Amino acid sequence: MTLSLVGLGIAYDITLAGLEEAKAADELYLESYTMPIEEKEISKLEKAIGKKMVRLPREKVESKFLVERAKERNACLLVVGDPLSATTHVSLLIDAKKAGVQVKIIHNSSILSAAPGKSGLQPYRFGKTVTLAYWRKNYEPVSPLQLIEQNLSMDMHTLLLLDLDPELGPMDAKTALEQLEKMEKKYGKRVFGKLVVLSRVGHPDEKITYGTRAELKSKNLGKPPFCFCIPAKLHPIEEEYLSLL
Fold it and tell me: What whole-number percentage of the chain has pLDDT above 70?
């Protein structure tokens, strides 16, 4: 029996291979805590596959549940984006191998590659990916800013992923801009200037905007989910592309 991890891509555009794998599964599960998926998209997928999906909460995906199910049947987990872009799913592979369960991976697009490409910045010039989490009471780290600064010191761009909190929802772009300014104030210096704001990458209503933080605050930046690309020194081709935004 097999445990299949099938990527839904950044816009739930399941591949033909993924579709066939989902149709052949005895049990079909959906993990969407790393990236929320709208009900209408779930309905479209279920119609295309021809069967209902059981939604799994984070604690169940991170447990032995799927591996145990796959010992006696073909179990398939649908994952938004690419299945191996989240550490949790690598852990699943480890657990499956230890249990002697065969694993099949059907890859798809990931925000980790799509966002740098859409920004017009050269993908090989990106440094560490950084996540911006909501500030809370007694939790106001400036470590994301320090990582951005570290990337810039090596003349490398930064992909900044915004928080997708179950309670607070996906972080809005302007909320993120305000929090970054608060971080710089706390850190004691300005770390970066212009940036690219990417909204709903891969969807029909995607929006990409480039400018200074002051300029971006007064613009319609689109809808969540958002991510940012913070450029280092620009190559002439990168500069020309960004000028068109």
Answer: 100
